[in-house]
Amino acid sequence: MDDNKVIRQLIRVNLELEGIEVVTAADGAECLEVVHQVRPDLVTLDVVMPRLDGLRTAGRLRSDPRTRDLPLVIVSACSQYEVDSGLDVGVDAFLAKPFDPQELVRLVRGLIVDPLGRARGTGDAEPATGHAGG
């Protein structure tokens, strides 16, 4: 989820090149709708967003039993306030903008793979696919 279309496209392209299906949202309110429809394996969130910011979106996802264990990644400027606030609401990881696309891929792969090395939601032995909402 990012209000900047270029950043959404950058995230989408880099993850799709790795075989990860991506669904995007332009703000937190849209993100919550998409998450409940698509049921992604991970959500990326920008902090500064119209209507509903990334930290409040993360808080809502954590408070909902259906999404409380969904991995959440803040992709933002990552000020100390954002990191502290993100940790308070249960964000799993942070990636500072501007980011290295390969670091994004590594981070997402690490969070959508369970400890047994299987992609979340599948019985595959290889972590080749997953769904990211962002």
Molecular structure report:
The chain has 134 residues and is an alpha/beta fold. It has one domain (5-113): Response regulator (Rossmann fold), CATH 3.40.50. It contains five helices and five strands, in the order αβαβαβαβαβ. It has helices spanning 5-16, 28-38, 54-63, 80-89, 101-112, and strands at residues 21-23, 42-45, 72-76, 93-96, 131-133. It has a five-stranded parallel β-sheet, sandwiched between helices. Helix 3 (54-63) links the parallel strand 2 (42-45) and strand 3 (72-76).
Radius of gyration: 13 Å
Helix content: 40-55%
CATH architecture group name = 3-Layer(aba) Sandwich
Shape from CA axes? globular
Q: What is the ordering of alpha helices and beta strands?
A: HEHEHEHEHE
SSE-based structural type = alpha/beta
Number of domains: 1
Task: Characterize the biggest β-sheet.
Answer: 5 strands, parallel
Mean pLDDT, all residues: 82
Low-confidence residue ranges: 115-131
**Distance, first to last CA:** 4 Å
CATH class group: Alpha Beta
CATH fold assignment: Rossmann fold
Q: What's the number of extended β-strand segments?
A: 5
Fraction of residues in β-strands: 5-15%
Q: Order of strands across the biggest sheet?
A: 1-5-2-3-4
Summarize the helices and strands and which ones pair or pack.
Layout: H1 5-16, E1 21-23, H2 28-38, E2 42-45, H3 54-63, E3 72-76, H4 80-89, E4 93-96, H5 101-112, E5 131-133
Parallel strand pairs: 1-5, 2-3, 2-5, 3-4
Give structural attributes:
134 residues, five-stranded parallel beta sheet, Rossmann fold, 5 helices, 5 strands, alpha/beta, 41% helix
